[in-house]
Design goal:
The protein has 134 residues and is of the alpha+beta class. Helices cover 31% and strands 24% of the residues.
Length: 134
């Protein structure tokens, strides 16, 4: 997976992000995550994300990770949303995205980055442990 790049979101990626969400329904228990490019732009214009990192392969967005200030704890940043297209699971894309957040936390001088999941999230829990979370 050498050709995967981690980039920061800007509106030029809105259509590709829209396509990624359309191709991600299987990874969200069959829930329809579809969004138009216009909706993606509006969501990002109205969000409080510190950063949104994208995993890009060629001209496709294959992963998404939003990163925010944690409103329930003054001393932490927070991985808000992580998605990797189902057809790219097992290729370390999620790990690349989470570590981009960890590196940004260090770069910004914050003492901690948090994330949350549930014990039954059998794909995410091992990924988070490999990234140093417990």
């Amino acid at each position: 997976m050498d050709s995967i790049r981690i980039v920061e979101y800007d509106h030029s990626y809105a259509k590709a992000v829209s396509d990624m969400w359309s191709k991600s329904s299987e990874g969200w228990n069959g829930n329809d995550m579809s969004r138009s490019a216009e909706t993606v732009i509006r969501e990002h214009d109205n969000s409080y994300h510190l950063n949104v990192f994208l995993a890009v392969r060629g001209d496709e967005v294959i992963g998404y990770c939003s990163f925010d200030k944690y409103t329930h704890d003054e001393g932490a940043l927070y991985v808000n949303c992580l998605n990797v297209r189902f057809d790219y699971h097992g290729n370390k894309v999620g790990k690349m995205l989470v570590l981009a957040c960890v590196n940004k936390t260090i770069e910004l001088g914050w003492p901690r980055v948090d994330l949350f999941t549930w014990p039954g999230n059998t794909k995410a829990v091992p990924l988070y442990k490999k990234c140093g979370f417990f």
